[in-house]
Structure prediction request, 513 residues.
Amino acid sequence: MNASVLRNAKLDEAELRALKSEIEDFNWDYGDVLDGNRLGEWPNFFTEDAFYRIRSRENADADMPVGLVHCEGRPMMVDRVFALMHTEMFEPRYYRHVIGTARVLDVTAQGVISARANYALYETILDQDTRLMQAGQYVDEFVRAGGRLLLKRRECIYDSTIVHTALIYPV
Amino acid sequence: MNASVLRNAKLDEAELRALKSEIEDFNWDYGDVLDGNRLGEWPNFFTEDAFYRIRSRENADADMPVGLVHCEGRPMMVDRVFALMHTEMFEPRYYRHVIGTARVLDVTAQGVISARANYALYETILDQDTRLMQAGQYVDEFVRAGGRLLLKRRECIYDSTIVHTALIYPV
Amino acid sequence: MNASVLRNAKLDEAELRALKSEIEDFNWDYGDVLDGNRLGEWPNFFTEDAFYRIRSRENADADMPVGLVHCEGRPMMVDRVFALMHTEMFEPRYYRHVIGTARVLDVTAQGVISARANYALYETILDQDTRLMQAGQYVDEFVRAGGRLLLKRRECIYDSTIVHTALIYPV
Prediction:
């Protein structure tokens, strides 16, 4: 987790600022798709071979690979979304992402952008108080394809040691 | 709520980034005025004919116009503020806005800027725990007047289905 | 707290935007060091003579100097960190900072940058729900030394009127 010591040497400062701003827009749109329950659009944020995982901080710190959700490749994401859209096993609820500023940590010669952002995810179940569902961090690798950013890898590391819901929904 | 598909074609990327940054400053100042209990300054963020509403996500999704607070025009905001400043019907409390990054979605030929931002609003009542009062989204239209941004329309869409307080205070 | 009326006249708008972005990166790194439990790196964010205080909003508003934590100079910070790293008097827990956008308020002729940012700090104790530990505001003065920003002064003003933990950890 030695994020702050990594510093990019390949882009100049203005380019890094532009990239930070672009990733913030990406993250906002990503959260908005999930909050707006437009699940079918979610896989579009990823490359075909992307890796997506929701993993507890405990497991991430211990280097344990087990995650709550684990998708290798966009087809697995599409399957997951299809299943979620055709199952209504849990009470209707609202989600709201409040995502902090993005931090660009590295850009490789191959154009892989390492970035992170912290998030708070709030959940509202009908007739219950809005509550914090998860505080966590996106640990990301972006690539640029056809002019736009895509996630090659997103790991959602959440702090909670108790998980209340089935949490089959992407974060 | 198909926010992510709207994309601006009228400003170049550097101008959009500048606008995003400027709106983030605007939102910060807006939250700071409310958090600092400087209510008298709140109407100054709006145009003379501005529309302001605090509405539940449930009503917004169902296209129901009913909101907790509904102001048409700055004079109604000034009245509301005057009433609030001269009524002390509820316990003293602190508010704190934590507002995420701003997302510019559109700029019309007439210069109307559509933008959104997600927020968490925390409330602290004396001798009680700080608690989340509202998670929500600002759905905004800005115009530029005399060099500075002003809200022509701000709708605060909150997720909660339970409202604890009278919530007569602007968000 | 009349933050919104202070406006900088010494830097042009592009320079202010660059500074805002740079401070957001600084704040992200700062939070990441604390969240990642890399306490030994925390004093490196400060100048040698820096002032650091965690103070309640109640005391700040009343101009009472008493704070939960009060460090004058980096050596006091190093001492505090050393003590914390060699005492394990409290249960293991995770922290997570979600810090909002930065607001640059002033830059003096001497290069002292006044800036603020709101934060939510979440705490997770093993086998308990993640909870909001503090909502608050960083009230900062930065200077530039050797090309990078350093805090000459950071005050963490928290809203809570109840403090649950010993809270000897920096915020």
Q: What stands out?
A: Chain B has a mean pLDDT of 89. The domain at 8-158 of chain B is CATH 3.10.450.50 (Nuclear Transport Factor 2; Chain: A,).
